[in-house]
Amino acid sequence: MTAGAIVVFGTGSDASVEQWDGHRAARGIMLRWFLADLDFPQFGFDVHRAAIPDIPPLPFDDINAAGVSGKTVWEYGGVVTLSCTTGFAFRPTGFPGRNALVITPGDPVRVRFNGTAWRIQVDAAPIGTGIEVVALVDGVETMRETLGQSNAHLLWRARDVSEIVLRGEGTVSFIGFHLLDDSRFWTHLAHRCLPVHDAGYACGPRGAASEEDEAAKRLPASVAADWGRRFSGPFNALLPALRRLARGDPPAPIPADTLNPQHPTLTAENGFPERALIRIALLDPHVARILGLAYDDPVALNGQEFAYKVTGIWRGARREVDGAGLKLVDFLQLLGKAGTRIKSNARGRTAVIDFRKGAIDFSLSADGSFPLEWIAEDENGHQVQGLLDRKRRTITLTRVATL
Which SS3 state, helix, strand or coil, does residue 64 take? Predict the structure, then answer.
């Protein structure tokens, strides 16, 4: 497992099978994901689902074909850029208004995505030895397939393809893809933090009034009914270790077994037996649910195919923009130079700050000389609002996409 990778597995259930603990599996799709070295993201995980839709193709229609023929670069819709050294050429496909992109020997066509693609489709009419399709991730080849007379259709599902290269001879009538960060295809299902309520743990929002309530809510209903008898004691015994993990504190030593006259001690390969015990506990899928490394999606199993995405947000380097003594318009310009998109309306006395990749652990301070009404929205559409004035001069927010 590479550093920073989140590996996700999913399995469906119709709730007809009894599990090892006497309870039936939850109906729907259970997701379980894994991290190296319990590197929990400080701002939690987000779970998204996409129904597998038809892939929209690049428009090789008469208008676009005429507009880009002979050009060496074609940027389409801000999502993809095609390039070839001698210029693009198209041929009619036999369907009115539809054309195919010509691939000639020695002049590959490069298709660079504005982001990373997780689903890619290519349909071709190869000539001779065919058309070779190569997938690149940061310039490194990860997949390769040759489209020939008997196999002229390609459909890839991958994690993070940034570019494909088409070389050989023939025509390509269809290039389609879905980008990993295209919010149009993803539905946000859940946000998961460790079930820890601690001032030193920034992840939020809280899922319940208490840590125990939050943990219990993550279990299937039939399992949660046994919380007091089965989980309450072990969870509260584990909670101090979870708080240390959430705060980033060093793990505590495991005391020797006083009931054994030989007083054995637990050791671990990395020197942190407390973390090793948490990893062992996570072998139980209910513990994985409690700690935020598993989720039950109660979706109907009706033959529809789904894709899932689990992301984590770790704290990076902090950026500060100091607007002390500046006019608001000058301060907004500084924010723009720091990587935000700014839209301001002097007449309406409003400004919209768009954080392109989202801001975490965000704070904004004002001098209180005049009131500022504010509304903040995160990437999942959740909104909070308030007022900055002489009484309250600073706001602190966990996650912001637009302010």
Answer: helix
Q: Which tokens in the block code for residue 197?
A: 């309520």
Query: What is the structure's pLDDT at 54?
Result: 76
Q: Which residue, among 185, 207, 188, has the nearest Cα to 196 in the 3D structure?
A: 207
3-class DSSP state of 52? coil
Nearest-CA neighbor of 291 among 299, 300, 303, 283? 283
| Length of the chain, in residues | 403
> Strand 187-192 vs strand 294-297: parallel, antiparallel, or unpaired?
unpaired
| Beta-bridge mates of residue 374 | 386
| Regions in the chain scoring below 50 on pLDDT | 1-3
Rounded to the nearest angstrom, the gap between the alpha carbon of residue 325 and the centroid of all alpha carbons in its chain is: 39
SS3 content of the chain, % helix, strand, coil (to 5): 20, 40, 40
Half-sphere exposure of 307 (CA within 13 A, CB side): 15
CA distances from 248 to 93, 211, 219, 251, 304 (A): 60, 18, 26, 9, 41
Q: CB atoms < 10 A from the CB of 367, how many?
A: 11
Give the pLDDT score at 399: 82
Max Cα-Cα span within the chain = 87
- Look at residue 174 in the predicted model and tell me its pLDDT: 96
Q: 2: Cβ–Cβ under 8 A, 6 or more apart, which residues?
A: 36
E strands of 180-283, at which residues? 187-192
Q: Are 362 and 396 in contact (CB under 8 A)?
A: yes
pLDDT of residue 346: 78
Cβ contact 194:241 at 8 Å: no
- What is the DSSP track for 262-324? T------TTS-HHHHHHHHHTTSHHHHHHHTSEEEE----SS--EEEEEEE-----------T
Q: Cα–Cα distance between 376 and 384 in angstroms, integer?
A: 5
The confidence score (pLDDT) of residue 1 equals 42
Report the 10 Å Cβ neighbour count for 144: 10
What SS3 class is residue 115? strand
CB neighbourhood size of 223 (10 A): 21
Q: Do residues 203 and 194 make contact, with C-beta atoms less than 8 angstroms apart?
A: yes
Rounded to an integer, what distance in angstroms lies between the CA atom of residue 307 and that of residue 47?
11
Q: Whose structure tokens read 């949660």?
A: 224
The whole-angstrom separation of Cα 64 and Cα 74 is: 10
